[in-house]
UniProtKB/TrEMBL annotation:
Transmembrane listed as a keyword: yes
Disordered as annotated region, ranges: 90-115
Organism, as annotated: Vitrella brassicaformis (strain CCMP3155)
Keywords annotated in UniProt: Membrane, Transmembrane, Transmembrane helix
Keyword Transmembrane helix: yes
Protein name per UniProt: Uncharacterized protein
TM ranges: 35-54, 176-193, 258-276
Length: 309
């Protein structure tokens, strides 16, 4: 019967845990600057693409098929309150009449457009006959062949103005795209310099000098944009989870999922950058001596250098 391995004796871990540790160590030892920036680019671009897709779902809701058939999307988007639009989009009552239409359509303000006013003249009609909603809302049943063709060819959306996070989301995905592009350029530069001998590094062309400057200076801008992303994530979190700030944002599940995913990406990238700073050693031609100093600028520079290689 075989006894415990050396790793098990030294660290007291199971075989599965030891295999995970060994695999992680092999990955870290084979990791280099080129791979670090390449995977960083993949993570940043993937996060930005996810934020772009979710931004459309957060800020817009589809115009229902029945409103498209009746050519009434402008009235639907402008006259129906936002909170009911979201409930309608979740339940899709246009495919079949709801059991209690009066609860689903509490359009209490008669001044929200002429077609809605015609609906509210008789509330009992809303409760008894759901089809009268479409007739009063769109000015007619709207079941012509041309209107039905519009359903398949035209998918209109209504902008949601109840949660003002459009600017923050746009800035967040823009910074992630910029970080991804910068990391991809730096990764390509490192891949190019890996093909050159160290003896030839003393004589560089103008393009190679620019690439070397990118490898030395540009990663600092990536770390600076990470601080900008942290501020944007904190602002989005406050808007979503502080009800007194933006009450409607807390009801948006797509926004919550986006914040969770973006926060996880930011934390993962932070851990990856700190680990790379501790394990990776830049090539000799990238060495820049750090002078001792004091004050806020010096402390901030040390903090930024600790976030990544």
């Amino acid at each position: 019967m075989e006894g415990p391995s050396v790793a098990e004796q030294c660290f007291g871990c199971s075989k599965v845990a030891c295999r995970v540790c060994v695999t992680t160590l092999k990955f870290l030892t084979s990791f280099n600057m080129k791979l670090y920036f390449f995977w960083s680019a993949i993570i940043y671009i993937g996060a930005a693409t996810f934020a772009y897709i979710m931004r459309d779902r957060i800020m817009f809701l589809p115009c229902p098929d029945a409103a498209i058939e009746a050519n009434a999307c402008p009235e639907y988007c402008n006259d129906v309150p936002p909170q009911y639009k979201r409930r309608l989009a979740d339940s899709d009552p246009f495919s079949s009449p709801p059991a209690t239409p009066r609860q689903l359509w509490p359009l209490a303000d008669p001044s929200r457009g002429p077609r809605l006013r015609s609906l509210q003249r008789d509330n009992s009609t809303i409760g008894s006959d759901f089809s009268s909603f479409l007739a009063g809302f769109a000015g007619g049943p709207g079941n012509s062949t041309d209107a039905q063709a519009a359903v398949a060819n035209r998918r209109e959306k209504c902008k949601q103005t109840d949660c003002n996070v459009d600017v923050n989301l746009a800035l967040l995905l823009s910074t992630y795209y910029i970080q991804g592009c910068i990391a991809l350029i730096v990764s390509a530069s490192f891949a190019y310099f890996d093909t050159k001998d160290e003896d030839k590094m003393g004589q560089l062309s103008c393009i190679e000098s620019v690439m070397g400057c990118l490898c030395k200076k540009v990663p600092q801008s990536v770390r600076l944009l990470s601080i900008v992303n942290l501020i944007q994530l904190a602002l989005l979190t406050c808007q979503t989870f502080i009800k007194e700030w933006e009450p409607q944002c807390g009801e948006n599940d797509n926004l919550k999922n986006t914040i969770y995913a973006m926060s996880a990406v930011w934390l993962f990238q932070l851990v990856l950058g700190v680990m790379a700073k501790q394990t990776l050693r830049p090539p000799p031609w990238m060495f820049v001596p750090q002078r001792r100093g004091k004050g806020f600028v010096y402390a901030f520079g040390r903090f930024m250098r600790a976030l990544g290689p």
